Amino acid sequence: MTGTDTTDTARLTGATAAAALALGDDALILSHRLGEWAGHAPVLEEEVALANIALDLLGQARILLSLVGDEDELAFLREERSFRNLQLVEQPNGDFAHTIARQLYFSFYQHEVYGELARGDGPFAPLAAKAVKETAYHRDHAEQWTLRLGDGTEESRSRMRAALDALWKFTGEMFQPVDGLDGLDPAALEQRWLAALTGVLDRAGLDLPQGPRTGAWAAGAGRQGLHTESFGRMVAEMQHLHRSHPGASW
Amino acid sequence: MVAVTPETGPDTALGADGTDGTDMTADLGAQLAAAFDAAVAADERVEPRDWMPDEYRASLVRQMAQHAHSEIIGMQPEANWITRAPSLRRKAILMAKVQDEAGHGLYLYSAAETLGTSRDELLDKLHSGKQKYSSIFNYPTLTWADVGAIGWLVDGAAITNQVPICRCSYGPYARAMVRICKEESFHQRQGYELLLALSRGTEAQHAMAQDAVDRWWWPSLMMFGPPDDESAHSAQSMAWRIKRHSNDELRQRFVDIAVPQAESLGLTLPDPDLKWNEERGHHDFGAIDWAEFWDVLKGNGPCNEQRIGQRRKAHEEGAWVRDAAAAYARKQTAQQAAQQAANPAGQNEEARV
Amino acid sequence: MTQNWPLWEVFVRSRRGLSHTHAGSLHAPDAEMALRNARDLYTRRGEGISIWVVPSTEITASSPDERDPFFAPSADKPYRHPTFYDIPEGVSHL
């Protein structure tokens, strides 16, 4: 549990608030997707691992959203078009390979971002310093599974390859400039991300996918509030109960 | 002749060593049995490699497996609400709780494995219906308040059942239960707190809480098992100190604890016969519908098929993942062996841990 | 055809200055995953700062049948314990 019930802390405004929302929504939505695995994981040990990652992310989301406003109002009362998360993190879980591919792409990105923010002295530095330890573990989890699925059986290799290909088009968005995160150099970020990713895929005997990742709909769209169809259903499920009892406390 | 035949499974040094009794004389068998009975009666712990009667071993495997199965099947009714939790705080709590249940299942399967069985074998028995899990999880979670009712009543009943198992005669089971009980103390409290928020909330929230308690109360009482005079395994389990109190004793304890808690919640328990009996120093309560209990146990509960179906599906759909990791491990081992063969001098000595 | 993952024993050092103690066991395909699973399972409430994992099959244990030859002989050597010795009152630092 994080201490996010402190509502009186100075709230961020303007571009910095938008950035907090972007990072917070990434964490919130991915945590939700990972939470959908509960009771469905391929092995009990993995139930525990996926839940750990989901809980880390939810903790990050709560801190970030609370920097902007009331965490529950932001999570449960915003319309779909107001969410600022990457399209990547809202993609359905698919099979385990899809979940791992999504984790691989995102955790490598998130780790670079928080690493950079932790080194700076901006409003996100304290949060990032804590989160970067969590993302290092998430990255390791994704890497370990990528190696095992890539270099496991014929079936696992083809599933992993299909998953990497399917999600590739959503990765371009991560390297669009984000308002309020001006200290981050998207090009440098992308270079480091690609280098790290290529290293892992190499060891797993997998190729870097080749398709486009800056299409009209896929680049920078989530950050602008344009999402994919499955996201609306996810949000409906997430918000339904809260919205059914206006003003109630839980 | 006392035949000690642990169920087949991977033997491990910390687990059963599969002592076979082939050369044992009847005398020796009787001596062992007497020594075992004396040790248990003196409240000594039995450890995996100790001699133990077949029936003791079988009874433990049965109970621990059922307990482990209940933990992992029990994830489902609550996980049903993770994606709809009405606040982020509640969502974090619920995810952590469901995760704990997976962890508890793991502790218990591990403890059972010390008796010479394997998790795969036990899961197969769960999936094929040869082993049971707690019937309570065959009831549906229809509203958010059910998450609270499960925490307060179902976990409350489970804790009442489990605390005595921390002193169970079998060491690994007792140790697993100590860890579980320690972790579980938050489960019941979060459920109670959740219901309290609803009970003190809007009219609709209060009604939701009352409805959940109405539906979960009786099944929770059934969790303690059939009445003592109908309980098949109770007497022997008590003698072996696997169990320390009878079903009815524990049920009464739970009712006595729950009544004042319900009052503080501002909710009523759905039993017109529930009242304090000054003479007994306990609450009297109405007759339990045992026909329903046996019916659900037989597989006719609202969710039996659904629960086992989901469990089986997760296991089957996860097979390729487990296979991949095993294949990878084999390749790595082969690679390391090849490297060592090519470079026999090796870098030898690694630093001490 | 599913490959069963082997069993690992987990030892956790709860804080600096203490030795690793047996926490329980788990299944994992290999040592690296065993370590990670152990971290997730046995230290999620901050119970540890260091973990060992050992394949269960690699542990050699004494047998209960040999309990007497193994352990009984050490029971009758009270002179190994400091309480065996009478020291006059007033003598300190001993």
From TrEMBL, chain A:
InterPro entries: Aromatic_CoA_ox/epox, Ferritin-like, Ferritin-like_SF, PaaA_PaaC, PaaC. GO terms for molecular function: phenylacetyl-CoA 1,2-epoxidase activity. Gene3D superfamilies: 1.20.1260.10. Pfam families: PaaA_PaaC. The keyword NADP does not apply. It is an enzyme of class 1 (oxidoreductase). Keywords: Oxidoreductase. The keyword Transferase does not apply. Its EC number is 1.14.13.149. It comes from the Bacteria. This is Ring-1,2-phenylacetyl-CoA epoxidase subunit PaaC. The lineage of its organism: Bacteria, Bacillati, Actinomycetota, Actinomycetes, Kitasatosporales.
From TrEMBL, chain C:
InterPro entries: PaaB (IPR009359), PaaB_sf (IPR038693). It comes from the Bacteria. Pfam families: PaaB. NCBIfam families: PA_CoA_Oxy2. This is 1,2-phenylacetyl-CoA epoxidase subunit B. It comes from Streptomyces subrutilus. The gene is paaB.
